[in-house]
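Spend some time on the protein that follows and explain the fold to me:
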Amino acid sequence: MTVYESDLPGVGKKFEIELGDDERLVMVIHNTGKREVFVRKGDEDSEKLFELSDRLARQVGTILEGAYFQPIATDTSETMLDDNSLLEWVKVAEGSVVADKTLEELDFRNETGATVVAVKRESGTESNPGPDTVVEAGDTLIVLGTREACQSVEALASNGDRESAKDADSEDDA
């Protein structure tokens, strides 16, 4: 998939995504926050599909990104909140060093810089878990932090140890 980006002086930015069969999805993000979505076939004029306000576009983007529903089982998923923060879904592997420990024992905030904002398991989702919440193999941790902090949690949750999580941080810095 190729994405083309161009400035529209006084208007905003235009993004074009190749869809195949000589079709492109064209999105114009206005400086006001308004979004317009078009489809263009070959050299024909673009056909406007719809327009969204800034707020609605962000809500739709969050849905498309999978924040509300993950149709395909994956070990990780992420949602960018801004340039420095993201929410990431991290699956706890069998035998992980974080399994069968409380959030207080794990001390992710001090060890990695990330915060666990929810724990999803078969029995349901625990939002804003407390320090006494026990992390179990098979849980999905919803983690808030920088990309590096979230990667450190992912390294720990996927059978890693604290040293390999720190090594992951070091590799990212290189």
Summary: The first strand starts at residue 3 and ends at 8. Residues 3-63 form one domain. DSSP finds five helices and twelve strands in the chain.
